[in-house]
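2024-03-11 09:14:02 INFO worker-7 job=invfold-0412 stage=load source=structure_tokens
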């Protein structure tokens, strides 16, 4: 919830400071640069130390960053460079925790229930995506732009407390070589497994589907003129769709084949994102965002479960770090969308991103007989 609240508040703050949508994309998209290196290193640390230890460190540093960010914003002398820099640093810290989160699911959930476990994990993110922006919009409307950044401090105190109370997790592999060599071994392991390599390519395809995200506040401000609260409602509609599907998946038994579900959800992405790109009706836009959100748990749950079950347990931390890197690369998609949108137009940019995303997903699955059987 803190992550989503921060992204919403900083996006609106950047526009209020008079900057363009490129700065909105930069504040989120450029965060991927340090995350690339720290994310891979985090996978090694997860295998060596266990996911819970890594999460405690991540939450502690995020709390410190929340205090610094709030102090800068409350001072009234905040600059664009400060917001972008703090956003990049926080993303680097988040990169440490993502592989740990995905690995802990396998520690706490039986293999036969991984889809349900991943769906419940996705539900927590969708709830955060709904509550974070909506809360941020209300706080901005009532108390001003500083209030969401103050709320971050309380959220990370709660997060750290619950993380400390999690059951202990055991390391999966002893560190016998350097971290750099172990990262290399993890990448070689992925390349040597054709199915796993294709699944990782699928995971990275989200870069092109994510290009619409920095355009949401632009449409809220310029196309619909609904203000900060209306922007929060748009993000909440997206999250509500995701939450609904996550709950439905968590209540169902695991299905034998997951690639048909991936292709079905890809079709949902194509329709919903295309409607979002061309719609000038606010209610229709909310519906398209809800449908887009509904597709996320089906796609991500299926892809993630396949990656988890196709990976040796001793390599899971490093493989999850690569998968988590794909989630971080979504931020590059944010920057790409904001930048390209100013050149060719936001509608054209979103439709092009959807087309590339569709080609990758259908191409990777339909050209592999072994993958289609999964």
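2024-03-11 09:14:09 INFO worker-7 stage=emit residues=374
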């Amino acid at each position: 919830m803190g992550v989503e609240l921060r992204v919403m508040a900083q996006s609106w703050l950047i526009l209020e400071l008079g900057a363009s949508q490129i700065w909105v994309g930069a504040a989120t998209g450029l965060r991927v640069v340090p995350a690339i290196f720290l994310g891979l290193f985090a996978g090694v640390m997860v295998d060596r130390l266990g996911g819970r230890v890594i999460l405690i460190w991540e939450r502690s540093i995020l709390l410190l960053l929340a205090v610094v960010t709030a102090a800068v914003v409350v001072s009234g002398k905040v600059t664009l460079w400060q917001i972008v820099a703090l956003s990049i640093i926080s993303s680097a810290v988040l990169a440490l925790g993502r592989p740990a989160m995905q690995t802990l699911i396998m520690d706490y959930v039986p293999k036969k229930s991984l889809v349900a476990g991943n769906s419940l994990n996705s539900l927590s993110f969708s709830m955060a995506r709904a509550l974070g922006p909506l809360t941020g919009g209300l706080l901005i409307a009532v108390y001003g732009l500083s209030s969401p950044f103050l709320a971050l401090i309380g959220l990370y105190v709660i997060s750290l407390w619950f993380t400390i109370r999690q059951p202990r997790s055991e390391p999966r592999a002893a560190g016998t070589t350097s971290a750099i060599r172990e990262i290399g071994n993890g990448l070689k392991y992925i390349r040597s497994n054709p199915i796993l390599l294709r699944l990782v390519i699928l995971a990275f395809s989200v870069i092109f589907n994510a290009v619409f995200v920095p355009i949401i506040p632009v449409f809220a401000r310029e196309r619909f003129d609904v203000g900060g609260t209306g922007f929060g409602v748009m993000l909440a509609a997206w999250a509500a769709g995701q939450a609904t599907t996550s709950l439905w998946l968590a209540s169902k038994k695991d299905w034998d084949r997951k690639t048909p579900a991936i292709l079905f959800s890809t079709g949902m992405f194509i329709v919903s994102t295309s409607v979002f790109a061309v719609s000038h009706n606010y209610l229709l836009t909310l519906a398209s965002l809800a449908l887009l959100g509904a597709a996320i748990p089906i796609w991500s749950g299926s892809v993630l479960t396949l990656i988890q079950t196709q990976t040796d347990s001793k390599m899971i931390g490093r493989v999850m770090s690569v998968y988590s890197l794909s989630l971080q690369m979504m931020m590059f998609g944010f920057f790409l969308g904001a930048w390209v949108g100013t050149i060719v137009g936001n509608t054209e940019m979103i439709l092009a991103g959807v087309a590339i995303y569709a080609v990758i997903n259908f191409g990777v699955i339909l050209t592999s007989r072994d993958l289609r059987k999964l």
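2024-03-11 09:14:09 INFO worker-7 stage=report msg="Residues 114-143 form the longest helix (30 residues)."
2024-03-11 09:14:10 INFO worker-7 job finished
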